[in-house]
Structure formats: structure tokens, C-alpha cells
Amino acid sequence: NGPLVSSLPPSSFQSSSSSSDSQSLHHAKLNRRDGGGGWMPERKDQLPWLQVDLRERVEVTAVATQGRFGSSDWVSSYTLLYSDTGSAWKQYRQEDHIGVFPGNTNAEGVTHHKLPHSVRTRYLRFLPRGWSSKGWIGLRVEAYGCSYKSDVADFDGRSSLLYRFNQKSMSTVKDVVSLQFRSWRADGVLVHGEGQRGDYITLELHGGRLALHLNLGESPRQPNGGHMSVSLGSLLDDQQWHSVQIERFNKQVNFTVDRLTRHVHTGGTGDSLEVDYELSFGGIPLPGKPGTFLRKNFHGCLENLYYNGVNIIDLAKRKKPQIYSVGNVTFSCSGSSAVSATFLSSRRSFLQLPAEGPGGVLGFRTWNDAGMLLWSGLQGAQTLLLILADAQLRLTHHRSALQSSEITVGEVECVCVCVRCPAALANQGCRNPTLAYQGCIRSIVINDYSVDLYRVQQGLLGNYSDLQIDICDIRDRCTPSYCEHGAVCSQTWSTFHCKCSGTGYTGATCHNSIFAPSCEAHRLMGSASGFFSIDPDGSGPLSPAVVYCNMTEEKVWMVVDHNIMGQVTVMGSSPQKPHVMKLNYSATLSQLSTLLHRAEQCQQEVVYRCRKSRLFNTWDGTPLSWWRDRAGERRTYWGGFLPGVQQCSCSLAENCIDMNYFCNCDADRSSWENDTGLLSYKEHLPVTEITVGDTNRTGSEAVYRVGSLQCYGDRFLWNAASFYQELSYLHFPTLQAELSVDVAFYFKTTAPSGVFLENLGARDFIRVELSTPSAVTFTFEVGGGPAVLSVKSHVPLNDKQWHHVRAERNVKEASLQVDQLPLRFLEAPPDGPARLQLNSQLFVGKPRPLWKCKQRGFLGCLRALNINGMTLDLEERAKMTPGVSAGCPGHCNGQAQLCHNRGRCIERSSGYVCDCTHSAYGGPHCQKEVSVSFESGTSVTYTFQEPFSVMRNKSRQSSAIYAQSSKSREIVAFRFLTTKAPAMLMTVTTYHQQYMTLILTHNGTFISSHSRSFTYRYFFQVVFFFFLQFRVSHIGGTWLDTHKCYLHFKRRLCLLEFFQTGVDEEVLQAGSRGFVGCLSSVQFNHLAPLKAAILNRGSSLVSVLGNLVESNCGELSPFLVLPVSPFLPPSHAPSRALSPFLSLILLLCLCLSHSCSFSSIFFFFFFFLTFARTLSLFLSLSLFLSLSFPLSLSLSLSLSLALSLSLSLPAGLIAALLLVLLCVAAAMTRVLHRCRRERTPAPSAAREKDPPTRPELLYRADLGPRAAIRDSRKEYFI
Question: Does an H or E element contain 1186, and which?
């Protein structure tokens, strides 16, 4: 790694310009003082550069710069270009795609830069980007490295090299292929080999990406066998050198392109690659037809081509017999004559050229989907326009200001061809219809005349601005992709975007999970029992899992089912051929392991019934039946919370039927015995396999069922530590936060300031602190100076109440949020450092070292500290740390839910109070429903407050930022009671033309319409109070449902159907009619608009039209306050008022005359009060009453009730009196019949012999998969 520039002759130096002979180029060597003391360009030079020819290709490992001797001239920053031929330059970029090197701060200091990855090149070019503010550009340079030797072969697109084996075929279990290539085309085969049994290996360029196809030991008739295809890299046809390495051992393959590696595993049954006769490089020649190839050949150069240690190019150069050459293969690499230009700015870049004809050719490459490529003035006022719009080319010929068409023919005089309209052509009608073009252009030909861009660069031809000539500086910002969790990456010229739709994650890089980490977290949000997506590791690598959350009175149970939930009968199994049943759960084993680790306690019931079927051999104790845990280990205990050997539940309880054995089944009795057990050792759960091996004897039989995995509690949700000494702290391993990190926790304190956590590096750091009593600050540095985000609260945060903090940093942005305050964003520089380099421990509670900084240690409580999806165990560390104690004192620190329905628990000196500000409920514990009766014409409008930055700047850019920073999930919950349909229940609109409407249609179905023209239709009928809770996610610019619509009515689950539609006529009708009825407990995210309308009527955020009356309609039971029947005409108002009274009388009569259950009463009210018109009521009552009364009585009751609903008031009273008389008669008949039965003795019946017991019938109740869970469900609605 010696110096490479100091010994070069003067002819090795070139530059864009030189200010004078005294500042000649050969004086630009490090520490050179003679001459002008270095290189200095002319001051009028628009794009100065200094070029060094190293005379041959060498490996450069470092560079150094220095200012001009004895002057105030130096370069403060520069970019480094390299090339093999002196043209087609490529910019050197570091690991984080940083292309700018820091330079000097004075004229004599030397700045060294060791290149993170060496570069093999002959030419180096230094481009100053910044220079001395006291003088001008002055530069002396040096490069360090060593010599580099290589073997090169040039393929012209019609040639190839064949490497032939010594034997007929070559079978290998290990292969290594390495090479460097430089391509002039986007497609072409580099390596290919195949065998007769179907094996093959192919490495080819396809669309500028490198694809590897591999098949091991599988016939083409089995397409899904061992075939594997993987693509890597991008823009590999850029005429630059790229390195490739393929390593295969058996089925494991490592595929590397330019330091980016993919690890893949092949399928199929084969481990070896069998190739017949030969391997081909550069193409696939057709056997028997020289010069004919099956696919596109490679056009470019290959360097240092090795196959399993064999230098293929060296053998070809020495004309060894193993190598056969097809076509013209030369052993030197020729360059390309095409010269590229990069348009750097979408607003200032342009290239203006003279033209004398209508024809032209150009090649371009860009990531943007819009931009103007060409404008040309033709004869008169005619113009020619070529633009890129929506990723499509559009060529337009404008004949006049009002007439345009596609170009056909035209007479041309002297015109200009430009890629952006310069100001000088504005008076000639040149206008930019879109943004200017940003990208690369090469091979510009105008009227068969090739444009020499070097003359443009020298100022001899045309004009230009913000242009780089002889370089295409296009970057693939999606390789490697910074998008997480499988999100799709897309990009423009200057940035990239991640499409998070369908991933379950959100944020700039799809880092944040939109799902709660546990069922306990759903309970705190007020969710009812149901299926939920749970993401236990948050932003970690595991995807969400769907589980059932059972919200009981005491605990919240997480239930995970498997594929064999029913009972299984086993007969005919033996130790040699046992019965084996594998269980597959609705979550993966990795997800289950994380769920179990987070839960407080878990259990799984194994119901096992046996008859002459032993669990263990009675002679030597060998297990005959067993189960396997999640690690695949065999377990032989059948109950208990600790693992054991040959133990069942009866042995733990000491109540086995035969105390000589540890299990009831080992008594080997012919009667049915029970060894059901509850497994509760978390490290072994869940059961993944059951093996039964002793049911092959006469009369032997076993019946088993493995229940659901059930867990309760969340160990980390209330994991807390108290810091009561300022010098005390907890330490954890270094944060893994190179590309992204998120930190979330709760805190409460009375101290005015303090550092929550800090992690340091050699230069970088990250810190979250309470900077003032009302502000939380997030500070970090990633090589470009400290970045600070701060959120200020209008109330003090050191109020001894819990506050939530969430900070995130990724390669695109940083964010900070405190409680429900607006989210603060800070965008990262587009080409700045990306990796956060930390090396110290993570300190929680105070900065390190404390005496070197102004920050104070934290005094107070921290809870639920979560970093990148992993919750740190504060309590465990606090137990062994002085000055810190586990847990946090106070009433609001346990898992007991003191405040309900999103209520916030606030500590007081003598207790606690519940803050119901963000809850739709009121009362001491946020359980009192807030209800309003709406009349015709009544409405409530609540105005949301947008972030100040968006309100201040209504530009398109701020709108995009606000849309991205807005919530990714809307949670709407309310209860309603109405008899009018259609009805508009709720409408939500935003400044950015997004909306959501909730509509009740005329036939009782529920519609949710969104601005993305998707309508979600929920099918149910409106009966009394309905409790509605649903979620809508807005991810990546598209609306999609999270498949969790829970519509509860007496524990009934509704199903969701969605379809695309426009605005329905029914929607317009509902909007015109509004809503008449009762609305209760309306919640929209963390807001309660209905409650705000009642309590803050003078607020500027709330607007009320009509008469808004607060009511207790939401609290009253639907069986005590019954709605007026909607099916009587207005003229029958008295009868309408009397109908509930008649229904009560009828119900009392039914209960007196016949046994009636709660369900039957409910069933009757369901049809009578809501659905039944006169005819339907008659039919339904006739059917219902016929089950309890004689036909004549049922018919008379139904007729009388129907008459009471359809007649006027006198007729209704007559029907009512008739109904009462019939009920009294029925009651007397019932009493007399019961008394006569009590006096008559019951006849003696012959006792029959009990039928033989069947285990399927005997234990059906026990084997029900959800019996216990279903009985214990309790629903919560918010």
C-alpha cells in the first residue's frame, strides 16, 4: 500500500483548466512546494476537476489531499471518480452511499481517507465540491495502493468459451464460481451447464440484474422439486466492473454480487450437481450448429474467471485442450465510445444544442416517471415536445397555440434541442410542462450527427447548467433495500419510498407494527373478546399472529388453536408402529415462543381416556406413549407445572386408582380410565406431537384430545423500576441500531429534568431525556452533527403521572411523540450517513460519564421499556443495582384496571382519580355512558386540529408529510338505537380530500364508505342497542381493512364483505335524512366528539345544529325501556303507545300458563318490537305460541295481538281486554292441571339395564374445545 502518485511523470496529470503556468498540473503532488505549490483552476471554470493517470490498473486503498502551498486555497470537500479508460466515469461511494469526502481546513494539513472497499482502476478524478472561503480551489493529492494483475476476456455478443471435462459428466457436492464482469448490454448468459438427469446451473444478466438458476437432482417433470432462482444487483449494465461469487455446498448456496450476499437453500432430494460434458461461459451454443445460441449471449468483458479453482481465461489464453473457443474471443477489454451526461437538478439542469433537422436519437435512463426530455422550435411558431409522463413517452407537435398533434412532417429551420427550457428561450415559447428531466442521457444524435459532449464541456458547443458530463451517476436506492418486513421499495432519482400495504407495519421504512403486542394490551384499549392480530415482538422480525383474546372478568386469556381440535380415537397401534399425530398451530413456533415468553402463565390441557392401553411399560417403565414439546424433545409427563418423568396428574394429587402406578392407565384395566392433565411448564409448551403405542391388544382403545394453548397476563406491560438516586443507573448490551431503532416507554417523575437512556459510540450517540419540566428531547448523531427533536407539552410532565414516550430513527427520518401530542418529524439528509455506530453499553437512568455533561440522572419510575420490539427486564436488573428498586409505588402501577374505557389513572396523595378526557364514558371510573337523543335536523360537527406545520403551510409537500405522519389506523366505536333508516351515523373528512362515512341502510345493513372508493358492507338487522367496533388502516396511500370487524349482539360475530363501488344513492338519501335516535359512547381514536359536544358547547372545535338533548338512553336496559313500534301509521298513535303495555301483559300470561325461559322471552320481544308488521307478527306469534299452548289458544292470542296493532284505539282496547281474559283462563287451566297431576301417584316403571358406556358420549362435554372458554366470556365495548 505504497504511494502511487509521487513518482508519476507530468503527462499523467490532466485538469479541466489551470489558472496559470505556475500552477501547472504536475505540481499537484502531496507535500510539493515548488512551482505554484499545487493545482488551481480558472475561476470561470463551471466544473473543475483534476485527473491522475496511474499508468496501469492498480488497486487503490486510500487517498489524501492537501491545499496549495503558501496560499489560502484549499478544497474542503470533494468527490472521487474512477475509470479504466479515462471515460465512462463512476463515482466512488462509501458503505452508506456517501459520495462526498471531507477535505482540508487549511493549506498545509493533510487529510487521509482509507477507502472502506478498495477500487481497481487506472484513472482517478478529483471533483472539488467546497473550497476555502478565504481564497479559491487549491489541491495536492496522493493515492495509495498496490499493483493488480488479472486475466481478461472480451466477448462480442456472438462468442463463448467452453470448458470440457475429462470425463463424460462431473458430479459435485461443492462448487465455487467467481468472476468480475463489465457489460455493454442488459441481458446475456455468463455461465451455463446442464446434465441429462435435469440438473443445471445458469448465471445470466436479465434486465440489468444478475439471476442465478439452479436445479439439483430433480427431473424437469417435477417443476417444484429442486429448482431455485434468485436475483441480485441492479443497473449492472453500466459499463463498470462488478464482482460475482457463487458458493454451493450441498443445498446451501451463497450468492454474492458487489458485497451484497443472499443465502438461499435449494429444495428437492438431491445434494449434488451433475453436469454433462462441459460448462459454457458467455453463451449457450446449440449443439451441432456452430455460431447458433439458445439465448442472448453476453456482450462485454470477463475478468479472473474461476471454476472450482481452475482459471478458465488463463487456460484459454494458453490454448489448452480443455478450452474450446466459439466465435471471436479476445484477451483485452475494449471500452465503449458512448459518452453519458447526468442531469443533477430537476429544476436547474438543462442542455441546449443547435440543430438543423427534425430527426434525433438519444438514450436515457432515469428513476423519475415525469420530466421534459426535448423541446425544439420549428418553422414559424411550431414546436416539438417530447416529455415523460406517468412513465410513458409522449411526443407532441404544436402547430399553434390552439392546435397540436403527433408529429408527422414539418419544414425545419435553425432550432434548438434542449432537455430543459433555459430562460433565454422563454420568449420563444419554450415552457416546462412538468418538472425538468433528472437522469442520464447518452448517444445524442441529431440529423445523423453525433453530439460531442466533450465540446459542450469545454464551452465550444451549446450551453448547459448543473450537468455532469462523461458520467452516469444513477443509483439504485432500493439495492440493498432499507424497507423492512417485506415491504416493496420504489424510488425516484433522489429518494426511495416503502409501500407498507398489507405488511401490518407502517412508517417511512415500514418499521412500526400497527398491532398490539398482547391480549392484555387489547384489554387496556377497551376491546371485546374476539380474534386479533398480535405482534409480540413489535418492530422485530416476526410477523403478527392471529389469536383469540378471551376477556373474562378476572383475566385476559390468549387462545391459540391447532389443526386437530377434536377428539382422536386410537386403536391398533403398537410400540413398533405407533400412532403419531402432529399438531400445526395457527402461529409459527417462533411466534409461539415469543408469545409464551411474554405471558405470565400458560397451560394446555391433554384429555386422555384409556381402556387396556398403558402409558408406560409396567415391567421396565419404558414409555409407550409420549408427546413432544415445541423444540421437538420427547416428554413423558402428562400433567403439572414442572417437568417430570413418568408422572400423571393422579400421581401429583396422590389419587391414582392403583397406587402401585403413577398413572391410571398403567393399571391396565378393561374399564375406561382417565389420565387427563394440565401442562403448565412454559418452556415445553405447546404440544407439537402425540404418540400412542399400546392399543393393539384385544379391547385396547384410547381417546385423546389436545386442547388450545391458553396464556394470560403480560410480564412486560408493567415491568418497572424506580430510580431514587441520581447517580444510579441500569446497564444493558449495546443497542443494535445501525439502520433503524425505536424506543418506547412510560415514565413518571417529579424531577425537573433527567436522562432516560443513552448509548454512545466513538462519534455517534443516541439520547432520550426530559430536558425541561414540560419537554422531552430526542438527540442523536450519525456523522453529520447532532440532530435534535423536542416535544413540548402545555402542561408539566413532572406531575407524578404516567406519560408515554416513543422515539424512532431510521435512514429516512426521525420522529418523537409524547402521549397524544402531535408527532414531530425530522427528515434525514438524502445522501447523508445512514449507519448509527454505537459501541458502549446502553445506560438507563443517567448519562455516562455524568461529570462530563450537563444532563442530570433520572429520578422517578420507568415502565415497559421497549427497544426494537424487545422489552428490557427492568425489574430483574433493578434487584441487583443499588439506588434502583424493582416496581413502582402507587395505585396506578398494577395490572388491575382501575379506570375503564381508555380512562387514565392519576395518582393522588391519598388515592387516585380517573381522567376520562380521552374516553367516551364518564363517571368516577369512566364507566358511565354519555348518550344523546338526536331529533330530525340535529347534528354535531367536531373539527380536528391539524399539526401547526401543516396549518401554516398548505403546500403539496406539507400535505404529503402530514398524510404520512397521520395515524395509520382509525378506531371508531359507538352504540346506537334507532328505528329510522336509512340514516347517516357518522362522516369523517380531512383537508386532504379523504373521507369515511358510516351509514345504516333501509334494509338494516351497515355501510362504511371511504375516499378510495371502497365500500364495506356489514350485514345485520337493527335491534335495540348494537355495539360496533371496527378498524380501518391507511397504509402507503391505499385503504385496506385489517379484517377485524367485530359487531356484537348477544355474542354473535358478524362477517365482512367488501366490494368496490361509487357513491350509492342510498348514501345520498342517508345524508339528507340524517339520524334520528340515540347515540352513545362515540369514540374516534383518542377523541370523544359527542362527549365534547355536551361538555364544551362553547368550544370553537364543536358545532351543534338543532336541539341536542343529553339522555340516559344508552344506560337503560333494552328490556325495560322499549322502543315505540315503527310499523303503525301516525293516526294510530294511542295504539302505538299501548302496544308495549300489551306485550308485557302477554308475556306475563305466557309465564303463568307455561314454563318460559329467558331466551324465549327475548325471542318474542325480538320479533314483536322490531321486525313484525301486522302479518309477519301474526305468523311468528302463531308459531311461537303453538309450542306452548293448544292450537286454539295460540290462534286466538295471535289474532288478538294483531288486531291490537292494526285497529284504532277502541278496537285496541277491546282486543286488550279479550287478551287479558284469555290469559287468566289459560292460567287457571294450568293451575288446575298441575294440582291434578300432583294427586295422581306415578306408575312404577320397570328398571332397564344401563347400556354400555361409550367414551365418545361419556366425555363429549369434556372434549368440547371451547366449552370452558365460551362460558367465561365477558364482552367489553368502547
Answer: helix 1174-1186
